Amino acid sequence: MATVEARVIEVPIDNSNDVLEIDCSQLPSHAAEICDILENEGSALRFYQLFALEYYKQGHVEEAVVALKRGMANAKANDQTAKVPLLNLLASIYVQKAKSSAATTGDRSLMLEMATALLTEAGRIDRSEANTHLVGGMLDLAKRLPDAALRHFDAALKAAPRSVAALLGKARVLFSKHRYQHALEVYQQVLTLRPTGRPDPRIGIGLCLHRLGHPADARRALRRAAEVDPAAAAPHILLATMDLNDVKRMLDPRIADGATQRAEELLHSAMAQLHRAYERQPECAATLVRLADRLFFQSNYDGARALAERALKSADTMGIQAEAHYQIARAYHASKRFDVAYDAYQKCLGINEKHHLARYGLGQMQLHRTDMSSAEATFQRVLDHHPRCVEVLRALGYLHARLPNTKAKALEYYEREMQVLADEAVEHAKRTGQPADDIGAWFVDANLFLESGLLYEASNAKKACRAYSMAADILQRPLPNSTECAGDAIPELWNNLGALSYLTSDDDSAIFSEYSQAALKCSKALADARVRLADARKGATPAAASKAASEIQRLECTLATITYNVARFYERCGFWDKAEALYNSLVADAPTYIDAKLRLAHIAFSFHGNSERALELISQAIGIDSKQSSAWLMRGNVELQRKSVQDARRAFEHVLKDLAKHDIYALCSLGNYHLAAGKSDNSRADNEANPAAAKKAKEMSAQSYKRALEFFDKCLQLDENCAAAAHGMAIAMAERGNAGDARQVFQDVRDAATAGLGPPTLCNPASELVFKIAKQQSASVDGSGVSLLARSPVGCDVLLWSGVNVAHSYVEVGNYRQAVLAYEASLRRLQEATKAMETADSSGTDSDRFVVAALEAKCGGSLTATRLTDAERAERRRVERDLRLYLIRALYIQAKATKDIDIMRTALSHIQSLCADENIKLPESALKPDTATKETADDADGDVEMTEDVVESGSEKKSLQVRISPDDCLVLFDLALIEQSVAQLVSEQPESQRTLQDLTAAATFIAHSEAAFTFLAKWGKVLQKKKQKLLFSARLATERAGYSKSLVTKLTRKQQEQEAFERQRQEHVEQWHRQQEEDEQRKRLEVEAAAKAQQELERKLLRDAEERNAILREQMAASVIAKQDEGETRSKKPRARAADDFISDNDDLAGSEDAEGLGSDAGEQARRSKSKKVRLSRKPAVEPRARGRAKPVGALSDEEREGETPPPRKRPSDEVESGKYKSKAIVTDSDDSS
Fold first, then answer.
1. Comparing C-alpha atoms, which of 425, 454, 462 is closest to residue 440?
2. What is the spatial distance between Cα 231 and Cα 228, in angstroms, rounded to a whole number?
3. In 3-state terms, what secondary structure has residue 58?
4. Please, are residues 1101 and 1108 in contact by the beta-carbon 8 Å criterion?
5. What's the number of CA atoms in the CB half-sphere (13 Å) around residue 761?
6. Which of 388, 622, 634, 1039 has the greatest count of CB atoms below 10 A from its CB?
7. Tens of pLDDT, residues 337-395
8. CA nearest neighbour of 665 among 559, 736, 533, 765
9. What DSSP string runs through 560-576?
10. Could you give the CA distance from residue 656 to residue 633 in angstroms, rounded to a whole number?
11. How far apart are CA 193 and CA 243, in angstroms?
């Protein structure tokens, strides 16, 4: 027999009672020798199993396999059951070999297949063997089939309920399936069965308790495991791991609240536990891996790699092997040996594909190799298992930010990361009971917001501004053990904040604050860099000097950009002198700074009105860089403003042909050019008398419209949110007769501009961003002033002109009401914006606020705001006049269509107000019929001067000179036309719907209209002779003047007719009033007579009631007396009553009737009833006095009845019949009921 203590196995000798003792400590090196002995002695198969176990314990795995195979070969055919333990043991050895670190992938698969075959054979022989199911469970675990393993362990426990190995296997499976409570119960069962067994179940108990959220109990279980087995390393490793995890949580910079000392204590405790584990088992793979992890965080990458390689050699489980490869990979990764790290990560994932940290590292290596598609797939696999992992979200955002056409996806990942961090902040606040107001303090990585801001710049400037603000807040936090902050070295961030605020906000104070901080930080950093450069040169350190020089160059460029943006800010505020001084300083420091020269050209043209100087500066910029498209675009814009249309067209075409064929500004400008050409050709065709010439003009117009649509379509292909292109395309559609579709496009443009989605950017970028140029403009209004679009030049106000064109389209389709509302809204928008800008200019409150101290030395001039230049103010006045004329035209057309005199009067009121506001009126001489007019040769500024000879008293003549512009002539023409229309509508009204005052006013209007048309007809001839632009038809003015004369005659006749009609109507009205008075008087008398009759009737009724009451009182008194007499008579002489209860005719019944049921004839009726026999009721019913009844007219009041006996009441139920005689029963008083 084998004795464990002596490690001696006694083998029985065949055909003898002796045994052969074999010392297990001195086994032969080859198991074949032992097998030969066993075969010679005919030993049982269990001895092969025993020696195989001894060889396996001593590390001779192959010899154990040889012993088991020899034993199975010697198994008897009739006793296959004895072979099952050998099959199970050999299968378990193959499973262990498959799990060893030395096994390759092919060897591992082969081992598992061999183990499967052995177990299949064992199951065929004996299906109820517990060990077969136990080894099957181990095999399934090696194959990563936890459900199948759990079934095998349950089957083993069914066969052997107290099998500790099966219980441990089941607990392990339950733990891996996160069923920690069930696993805990199984481990506790193992502890009950074998308290001192190996492996120690207390370790499993500790792990389960830790997972269940009981860390104190888990530590207690692990400490007990270390006490029970002082040589065990696992408890110490797990205790160290728990301490290290606590340290990580405590040292989190977001939640560290004075826990540094406690973290240091835990860190020392963890290292002490690791040292104890290392002392007990120096080659324990788990201990080595954990120590390697600590060395990695101490930046000892070589030491960490060496320990991980030792762990890899001694690892007996695949999990430890994978972890060892991961530690090796991350050590190579940190040492920048990326190729070796890539291979190590691959090995780790080859062993454990669920090692997500290794997969994350592999994704980083793929990023380094620029294998973007593979990196994306790798990170996505990690994200599928850990959707709230901020590191993976950051990596995917970084990856997509650098891939084409995936910027939106990158922003999505960055936003998810922000949301995860915000949720963590809220959860932490709930756990600690702190308020969750300051979520921003939870964010500690500014790079997240810097990357997000860069991406947002191209799509949403407001979100970009918020992202940069968050980054600035993080960078403004003081550095550890320092009063400085990391943001001091990044002035570009504050410059970007100012530029984005410039584009999205109306808060000038906030914009100035950002730019001021940017200039201050940049100036300070530049001074420090220059000091470092001087120190480096003195110390003869070329590397430091080179670095400082590079830093100085960067900061100087940044300061120039900040200066440029501050100048742009001054332009926005109307501080043109300050802006010009800053631009001049930039040009002086850097003569090739093209943007500064172009802004100087803009100031020269827009503020000073010096187009020659503007063109000169633009030419200088083109001389510096002839391929600078911005300079050519500005040249085209200036030429267009100067009415040099062809020069402007050539500039825009040059940009498209030679510089940038997809420049949206040039495409839109050329589209507008062809649109204007089409409108001009169309007007010429309408006015052309020659049919051939008119046809040619129509063809040219159609061609121009087609070219315009091509340019606008190209713009929309490049930028679908280009409102200017959509606006131009809608205009072309409306000009070609498709007003309905055009109106829809105009409405879409207006809605998009209102929502801030697509306003056009038709001028140079408003500000420079160091990180990236942003060209997005927003239409938001924050309540502090005029919106950005309204503050921009009136020609660039998308909301204004889209609203105007929507109104135009409504007029074309006949929806005049909506057209009037749209015109009024547009006019109101323009007036409010202009008023706000004028108010800002006149307030002068900005002069002391916007002084950038760091740039004050470069600034000249004064801080006097002039947001509205003279040219812009004149343009706004012109646009306002046009809008008012559009509104008047819509009202006029609506009134003509509906023949509504009220709407026509409204139009007249509007145009009279326009004339009064702009002092437009006819010359005094034009209102005099005896004035002779002759023209002179003066036509400066488009005005025409006329000399008028006025005939005065005697034969003297006085010469007067009058000047009037063509635009004023148009307003006067419209005024005269509306006055004529009002007079015509009044004359056409029925006599009953107008008044003499209306006709008198109409006569005044027609007189003024006639004078105006006469004057304009003469003036039009003067303009035609001078070949100047005529905005109205002189022929039509002559015709209208003639019509006015005929209308004067008609109105005179109508006045006479109206006067007669109103006189006759007045007579009818007076007669009607008299008739009404007579009728009212008659009705009044009738009412008075009726009232008197009613009063008389009431008096009569009152008298009758009083008489009835008097009779009633008499009857009541007689009744009382009769009752008294009857009582006395009965007391003296009893009456004889008949058998049928009748009384004789002599009985006194006077006064027995109900007072309420009898009238004035009641007494007489009672007297007549004496001759009849009346049957008396034995139990008369008496009604309660509480029942309410209406008091009859003339009835007694309560005071009158006081002291009298109330009369009896008659009830219908008291009526009785007796033979042919019928009478009403007498209801007596309660005293007489007997």
1. 425
2. 9
3. coil
4. no
5. 19
6. 634
7. 999 999 999 999 988 888 999 999 999 999 999 999 999 999 999 999 999 999 999 99
8. 765
9. HHHHHHHHHHHHHHT-H
10. 10
11. 31
